[in-house]
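Hi support team,

I submitted a single chain yesterday and got back a structure, but I'm not sure I'm reading the token output correctly. Could someone confirm the output below corresponds to the sequence I sent? I've pasted both exactly as they appear in my results page.

Thanks,
R.
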Amino acid sequence: MTPGVAGSERVAAPAARFDVERIRADFPILTRTVRGKPLVYLDNAATTQKPRAVLDALAGYYTSINANVHRGVHELSERATRAFDEARERVARFFNAAHAHEIVFTRNATESINLVAHSFARPRLKPGDEVLITAMEHHSNIVPWQLACEATGASLRVAPIDDRGELMVDELERLLTPRTRILAVAHMSNALGTVNPVADLVRIAHAQGVPVLLDGSQAAYHLPVDVQALDCDFYAATGHKLYGPTGVGVLYGRTEHLEAMPPFLGGGDMISAVTFEKSTWNVLPYKFEAGTPNIAGAVGLHAALDYLEGVGRAAVQEHERQLLEYGTELLSTMPGVRIIGTARWKSSILSFVMDGVHPHDIGTVVDLEGVAIRTGHHCAQPVMERFGVPATARASLAMYNTREELDALGRALERVREVFGA
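Hi R., thanks for writing in. Yes, this is the structure output for that exact sequence:
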């Protein structure tokens, strides 16, 4: 089986020549050593490294135009405001939103999902209503809905996954009922790599009048995302996985939904007028952006999106597909190693266990070899329970990774076998 990606996303342009060594030269951290060995960074599902273009954009903001936005008439404030607004427009183009005001800046995808759960779902939920999610969700797409259900008397329903880690679409469709008020589903699983057929899921849900939130935390930096083509109601993403800074996230929401939603946080800049008797709200998207935003983060995210699209989304996608295929073959031939998550459509995630060795011990030993992977439940404890394991080791790929780095992972795992006699 060759791992692939779902065909429901926007089709990318033909791939350009991909020069991974040139790309690696753009990421300063990749030249460092760890434990006296060259860094092999395979923890990209947790956060990606940042190209020099992003680092320069952050430094440039703070050294040349640092000022608060939307509040000043002096030159620095005007320039900072322009840079912040241009970042929003850049994000809107990246996701093909119909309007820039459909892009709300948050701290991360977690806050984006919480915003929808609090401001969109909770006012609409009542006892007997249901929220539908899937069994492969990250905690960030579980806990906010649990809180909303607990506060309103609604119920949380969960669509199952099969032994491959694929969503059982027929079961999800069966669980959609007249009581379902929203479907929230991962575009791509952080623990399994499964890519869900999200365009199909949106069509199925919309046929029953159910709005859909897609958690794009993992998908957005691997797959082209067109929110208009997907026809989703909300899309959540995070900057630090898009080769951008930490502390800046994105919520796409349809204009009609955002207009109808009450503010999530109160304070400065989200208001139109304030008296002690009553306050009125600012226009979109500022209604949801109380206080000073992460201006530098937005500027850095702008640079990250420019960089990613400058490399070429199709070329990156093909490079990562080849790496996933190579890594899958490598791990599959290692005695005692079992891959968790073998979906027919997946991307860039290699989760695995080794007979007789706890994943935390795997992570400790491979770190001594200079290899950075993630171990644990990956904020997806229900996934671990589904597969009957306490945790997995996870190697996750990005545009700057190489086959040689996967070979280094293989040698590090051989060292694990030597240490533990596995």
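A quick pointer for reading it: The first strand starts at residue 33 and ends at 34. Let us know if anything else looks off.

Best,
Support desk
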